[in-house]
């Protein structure tokens, strides 16, 4: 069993659309039946959600609120030090609470007033075609669960901390939100698995793990970095490269580990030009042109 498998709790649904979540040994929630039951309730609410409706109301446990508060207080000073000015302004406008987990519906309404984006509830990992394609419609699929309170400062699973504190910060910026929409449009034109993988990898090294500025003083805008306490302390010590489509499309990565290679743009203008140029040219042959193969890991 791989490390990635042990750290993820896959969500499946039975014939009656009742979620079945597998918490394998090594997962922080393994053996915690109360936590597992909460996750199942949230997954069921997402599976029963109808497009166009607001995200369902979730009743969070005291441990969930304490976990959110702990993470918020740990990350906030790091954002002031390491996040780009655009992200810091977006976070201020989004006005996330610190002491309790916000309802996704409330964050979604606020986000919609800022950039037109809304959150749609997800039971777990969303198929990439749907996840990326929905961005073109200003929709971001978000889970509503909180990572287990025993490991608050890092989670390989996309929980509310990652979705709302990470992606919410960039989706609340009109300039970054426009890049998300362009990713969605490109994903819908990708046509082949290889081309979709290429879009996914460029997304990974920009909107998930991207930096702005010179390597020794780079600042963070990528959602995975913004939501990771440990990586915000460590990112300037890894190998930082300039933007390069072919390198980014073929660079291996592991979602369960800190990233050993990151890419930086000199400015937000350069990032917009780089991503806009790549995304506008995506078609069914993009993956093959970049050397992305069908069996290549995400």
Task: Outline the fold blueprint.
Layout: H1 3-7, E1 11-13, E2 19-21, H2 33-47, H3 62-82, H4 85-94, H5 104-115, E3 118-121, H6 128-135, E4 139-142, H7 160-171, H8 174-189, H9 193-208, E5 211-212, E6 219-220, H10 223-226, H11 229-234, E7 239-242, H12 245-250, E8 261-265, H13 268-280, H14 286-290
Parallel strand pairs: 3-4, 5-8, 7-8
Antiparallel strand pairs: 1-2, 5-6
Q: What can you see in these coordinates?
A:
The chain is α/β, with parallel strands linked by helices and 298 residues long. The protein has helices at 3-7, 33-47, 62-82, 85-94, 104-115, 128-135, 160-171, 174-189, 193-208, 223-226, 229-234, 245-250, 268-280, 286-290, and strands spanning 11-13, 19-21, 118-121, 139-142, 211-212, 219-220, 239-242, 261-265. It has a 4-stranded mixed β-sheet. A two-stranded antiparallel ribbon has the order 1-2. A two-stranded parallel sheet has the order 3-4. Helix 12 (245-250) links the parallel strand 7 (239-242) and strand 8. Helix 6 (128-135) packs across helix 8. The chain starts with a helix and ends in an 8-residue tail after the last helix. Mean pLDDT is 93; it is low at 1-5.
SSE string, helices as H and strands as E: HEEHHHHEHEHHHEEHHEHEHH
Question: What's the total number of strands?
Answer: 8
Share of residues in strands: 5-15%
Structural class: alpha/beta
- Rg, Cα atoms, Å: 18 Å
Alpha-carbon distance between the two ends:
18 Å
Report the biggest beta sheet as strand number plus sense, adding barrel if it closes: 4 strands, mixed
Could you give the order of strands across the largest sheet? 6-5-8-7
Helical segment count: 14
């Amino acid at each position: 069993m791989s490390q990635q498998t042990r750290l993820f709790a896959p969500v499946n649904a039975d014939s009656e659309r009742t979620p079945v979540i597998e918490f394998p040994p090594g997962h922080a929630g393994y053996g915690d039946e109360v936590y597992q039951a909460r996750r199942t309730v949230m997954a069921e609410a997402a599976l029963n959600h109808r497009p166009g409706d607001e995200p369902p109301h979730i009743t969070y446990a005291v441990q969930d609120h304490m976990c959110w508060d702990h993470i918020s207080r740990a990350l906030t000073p790091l954002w002031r030090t390491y996040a780009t000015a655009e992200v810091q302004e977006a976070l201020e406008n989004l006005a996330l609470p610190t002491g309790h987990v916000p309802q996704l519906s409330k964050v979604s309404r606020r986000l919609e007033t800022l950039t037109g984006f809304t959150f749609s509830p997800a039971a777990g990992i969303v198929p990439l075609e749907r996840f990326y394609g929905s961005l073109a419609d200003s929709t971001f699929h978000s889970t509503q669960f909180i990572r287990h309170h025993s490991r608050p400062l890092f989670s390989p699973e996309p929980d509310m901390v990652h979705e709302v504190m990470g992606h919410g910060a960039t989706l609340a910026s009109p300039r970054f939100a426009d890049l998300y929409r362009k990713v969605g449009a490109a994903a819908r034109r990708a046509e082949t698995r290889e081309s979709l993988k290429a879009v996914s990898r460029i997304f990974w090294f920009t909107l998930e793990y991207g930096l702005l500025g010179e390597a020794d003083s780079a600042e963070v805008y990528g959602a995975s970095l913004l939501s990771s306490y440990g990586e915000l302390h460590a990112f300037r010590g890894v190998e930082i490269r300039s933007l390069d489509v072919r390198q980014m499309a073929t660079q291996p990565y592991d979602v369960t580990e800190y990233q050993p290679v990151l890419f930086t743009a000199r400015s937000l203008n350069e990032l917009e030009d780089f991503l806009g140029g790549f995304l506008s040219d995506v078609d069914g042959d993009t993956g093959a042109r970049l050397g992305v193969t069908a069996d290549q890991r995400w």
